[in-house]
Design goal:
228 residues
């Protein structure tokens, strides 16, 4: 799929990696729906920044754990843009329920409109090799991998659904220098990832191939295979 002229809804697009993804898609010519929950000011700024790139953008508010709010947000986006061709579920809260609700609404829209679409979800490398003390988080991210495969079957053949499983990209802000170095040493490439690595991966799954679906792309600098 070529993004130019298409419309993409990016959850959590008001800030951090979600915003970088939205900007990356906009630079490829896509109109953007900026989803946010509590970051209204950031969302307005993101919309203004995206519009400067020569495409259209709107912001929609929703608690992504609330089906009614998700349905209303998607309805607002469809009313403005008519079609939604791409969904990227990058919002960090409601790890499993949020992506499910957004994919349900937009997947139904894509099927009803007979669109060729792309959905990119976000898992985590720890969904494959779980952390010792983060059971709920790891289980929710493992659920994203199963959700992605199930959606790929349910929405095929015209809609491809894939997941990205990031590794060490944005570390907690309270990490010490020693803790950061420990994480770096635990990768194969001996560096941290960047938001650009994630954006490029999203672009690959959307524009790079229409023959990949139900796949989880691990973007972790080799953290998963490094051991330790």
């Amino acid at each position: 799929m070529k993004l130019k002229g298409k419309t993409a809804l990016v959850t959590g697009a008001a800030k951090r990696i979600g915003r970088e993804i939205a900007l990356g898609l906009a630079r490829r010519g896509a109109n953007i729906v900026v989803h946010y929950n509590s970051s209204a000011s950031d969302a307005r700024e993101a919309v203004a920044e995206i519009k400067k790139l020569g495409v259209d953008a709107i912001a929609v508010k929703a608690d992504q754990s609330n089906a009614r709010e998700v349905r209303a947000a998607v309805g607002k986006a469809v009313k403005h843009f008519h079609d939604i061709h791409v969904l990227v579920t990058s919002a960090a809260d409601a790890n499993l329920k949020g992506p499910f609700l957004f994919a349900l609404e937009i997947g139904r829209h894509m099927k009803a409109r007979k669109l060729n679409g792309k959905i990119v979800t976000f898992a985590d490398w720890s969904a494959i090799r779980p952390y010792a003390n983060y059971l709920p988080y790891c289980v929710s991210k493992a659920g994203i991998i199963c959700l992605t495969k199930s959606l790929a079957k349910a929405l095929g053949p015209n809609v491809q659904v894939n997941a990205i499983a990031p590794g060490p990209v944005l570390l907690p802000p309270d990490f010490t220098e020693a803790e950061i170095q420990e994480v770096i040493d635990a990768t194969v490439v001996k560096r941290l990832g960047s938001p650009k690595d994630i954006v490029n991966s999203v672009l690959f799954l959307i524009e790079g191939s229409d023959f990949i679906t139900g796949h989880t792309l691990v973007v972790d600098g080799g953290r998963l295979i490094a051991g330790g």
